[in-house]
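The freezer alarm interrupted the setup, so I double-checked each line after restarting. Inputs confirmed:
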Amino acid sequence: MATTSAETQTGTVVPADNLPDTFPPFDGTTYASQILWLAITFGLLYWIMSRVALPRISGILEDRRDRIAGDIAEANRLNDESNAAIAAYEQALAEARANAHGIAQETRDKLKADVERRRAATEADLAAKLSDAEQRIQDIKAAAMENVGEIASETTTALVESLIGKAPTKTELSKAVDGAMK
Amino acid sequence: MANNPIDQFRITEIVPIEVGGLNLSFTNSALFMVVTTALVATFLILSTGGRGLVPSRWQSLAEMSYEFVANTLRSSAGNEGMRFFPLVFSLFMFVLFANLIGMFPYFFTVTSHIIVTFMLSLLVIGTVTVYGFAKHGTKFLHLFAPSGVPPIMYLLVTPIEVISFLSRPVSLSVRLFANMLAGHITLKVFAGFVVSLIAADGLGAIGPIMAILPLLMTIAITALEFLVSFLQAYVFTVLTCMYLNDALHPSH
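Predicted 3D structure, all chains:
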């Protein structure tokens, strides 16, 4: 039952003699063929989809999801690492700062002690020299005093001699000089 | 092609085959079924051949169709529904491509024949029924007796549910078939007006000018038909998903 399309040039519909009058979708004689070929083609499509195409696409999507998840995990790991490095650096910095502070303090203390020690030594030296000098002054003063007594005695002797023509005794002399010098 | 708007649905034999008195010829309809299947398969296999981590345009399109159908199925039938994914995806792609291929002038629209859409609907309802009974046994019949209804109401509710269940393959197939059929007839009629007006003898110069109106209409309807092609494929898929949901969870 071969059917052909009616070709018309005039724009008026002229049904060909061999065309069935039934509305094509309701023409039961074509059903068997359509069902058969639909079963074949749709069955084939289903087979291709379920065996090849869909597993492949879902594989691609899964790979991408895994890759993204993996990349995010890797990025997080690297981020953690860099955070740890920053923390370590800051720790080292703090330690170095503390060390430097310690060293500075130590040096300051050492210098201070040094200065203190030298000052003490100098002061002691000066004190020694001062007391030395004082001692010497004392000595000189004492010596001078001694000489004063002697001079006084001699002067008194000479004066008394010239006044009364007779030298005083040593006992009288020293008694008088000592009394005058007091 | 003739100007008769019905002629585009006529089935012609390409390779006559007859087995036991049955006409199983390879027809133009069968040819376009083959073309549909070949196009879908070629598109999906070639586009995903690169398995690119960063998809190419075509691969992106294939992935979008996958995600689109997967999301539709998951949202109405849940994750268990994904066992039917190859079926639902094949149905969507087959109907969509058949509809779109039919939009080319002189091409045959496979889905404009009730027997094709009815067979696809039967496949869906058959899957729902067989799987429903296999999975839930007689509990599948709870579909017809929803819980939370006063017992006396079952006299009313159960027949309604049975009728609604039985009418599903009919409504599913007629919706798709009628949309494609009506759309193509409308297109053909308006396109025919263009030719008739230009060729009309009595109108003189006015004819070609007036022909602009049905031409504009034809353009608009063509755009609309592309929308309908996609929309009907989507509606078919969504309803399939909802019916499959009944097979998975018959107690609502």
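Quick read of the result. Chain B is about 65% helix and 5% strand.
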